[in-house]
Amino acid sequence: MDFRYSKWDPEQHGNTPTTFDKLLKMFNQLLVYTNGDANEALAWLTQMDKQYGLTDDEMGMGDFIDRLRREGYLDDAPERGSFNITGKTTKKIREDSLNEIFTSLRKSSNSGAHKIASTGMSDERVPETRNWKFGDNSQNIDFTTTINNALKRDGIDEFSLKEDDFRVYETEQQTSCATVLMIDVSHSMILYGEDRITPAKKVALALSELILTRYPKDSLNIILFGDEAWEVEVKDLPFVSVGPYHTNTKAGLNLARQILRRKKNPNKQIFMITDGKPSAINEGAKIYKNSFGLDRKIVNKTLDEAVVCRKEKAVITTFMVTSDPYLQGFVKELTEANQGRAYYSGLDNLGEYIFVDYIRNRKKTLR
User: Fold this and answer.
1) Using CA atoms, how far apart are residues 151 and 147, in angstroms rounded to an integer?
2) CATH class of the domain whose range is 177-364
3) What element of type H or E holds 267?
4) What is the CATH number of domain 15-85?
5) Which residues have a Cβ under 8 Å from the Cβ of 12 and sit 6 or more positions away?
6) 288: pLDDT confidence band, cut at 50, 70 and 90?
7) Are the C-beta atoms of residues 110 and 358 closer than 8 Å to each other?
């Protein structure tokens, strides 16, 4: 039999992204930066095309926009002579964000930094094995080790299986989890020319897609907090933007706690992405604000809320996206009050830390 070898041609196997695929990916990334403004994103993409030649003879910018409309990524807004993004677009943005973060997770050497030491009963195996005991699922039997144990004892001529020969794989128990993701939208999230809100939005988009597709029994609620705290839906995430707000961390934690109190999931957690110390609290119908240093009046009220979260078994994990010493000092106190966790993640690996921690927190420890 003769074999003919040739150079691998990915185009023949459909693995090469088309011009439309490449433009769509860039368009979706720009939508996150423009807070869901399709017209601004298209203007930026057109400018990039002029500068870098993104289009080709088969697809120009006009062709790309026409296809976006045909495939349901854009809706006309005739009253303004412009476009709106659709639900299909927001889902594609979530998918792209999820793929981007998991790609960085696979490449990162830190992605295995949060291992689970304990095991329980479920269908998810871990490499370690133990002796079989009554009630173990037969699907988890390590047949290779089991048979080897029998052969070592009696040899192949007298082969027989005894209870002591059986080994089973350890498993980890997956449990449903209710998560509230708090995103700081105070003015400091875009202060001094550093964009901190876009990475936070990407993480929220990706986390929501992960839960919707892989963990449908889990719940995710998203809270924005500035002078006040309010809840937004997943579909509204691309449109999130910062405002001229102070940082009312207490209001965010209070709303998160109220949401989690209604959940029946056995695990409850709060993820908070912030770059600033708390600088506001509610006082009746008014808001007390102080942007200078750590105002103990504001800090103490916020810490009181963290203690109540702890009593209601809601663990707070804080992700700091700045090295501000004021923030670090506050987060240390908050973490001690709640007995939670804190990370200084930076903007590049924010998604990595949150995703590893989310998956870790879904595993229930049994002894």
Assistant:
1) 6
2) alpha beta
3) strand 267-274
4) 1.10.10
5) none
6) very high
7) no
